[in-house]
Amino acid sequence: MPYDNSSRAAAAAATRTKVLAAARDAFLTQGYAATTIRGIAAAAGVSQETVYKRFGNKARLLKDAYDVAMAGDEDAAPVGARPEAVAVREATGPEEAVAAYAALCRGLTGRAGGLMRVVASARGGDPDLDAFVATVDAERLTGATLVAGLWAERGWLRPGLDAERARDVIWTLNSPDVWLLLTQRGWSPQDYESWIATGLRSMVLRSA
């Protein structure tokens, strides 16, 4: 009879969920510097060794918690495969693309905004955390490159704008640093979504 390891896999998944939930709560309430692996392990009801074996270090825990927040769940499907991102790719014209991309940005910041603040407040004090920030920025650049390339192929970019410059504008518009500045000024999620849409219309996409 073949060995059935489904119970072990389910237990591992449950442990991961508990640890990530405990980590997210700790980061949001205590900040990055004050959060410890010991505290996360205690809150999750597991050993420190378990946390280290599964996640490596505190920065990796933050990255994994951030990825779950961005996606909205722990499903393995990347953000790019989620309905919000699919809507951007399946847009049939510039205006539909604007609306879909602005809604995507609002959804991502709505789910991961709290952890974005944690990252911003702790940068420069931990090499592992700085590496995480660099990874996130690179992931955003990859996403912006794909979107700009798609819009260029469809002939939707503003006259005189190439895909490379469009990518840079999109990457700047969706920067967590920009979102943080705007929310510090009291902007609502709707304000942010509208601003993203306005920026895309005025700087990236031609009129429908």
From TrEMBL:
> Is Transcription regulation tagged as a keyword?
yes
Keyword Chloroplast attached: no
InterPro entries per UniProt? Homeodomain-like_sf, HTH-type_TetR-like_transc_reg, HTH_TetR
SUPFAM superfamilies attached to this UniProt entry: Homeodomain-like (SSF46689)
Domain (HTH tetR-type): give its ranges.
Answer: 13-73
The organism's superkingdom is given as Bacteria
User: What PROSITE patterns does the annotation carry?
Assistant: HTH_TETR_2
Feature: DNA-binding region: 36-55
Keywords in alphabetical order: DNA-binding, Transcription, Transcription regulation
Show the Pfam families listed in the entry.
TetR_N
What protein does this entry describe?
TetR/AcrR family transcriptional regulator
Protein's organism: Pseudonocardia humida
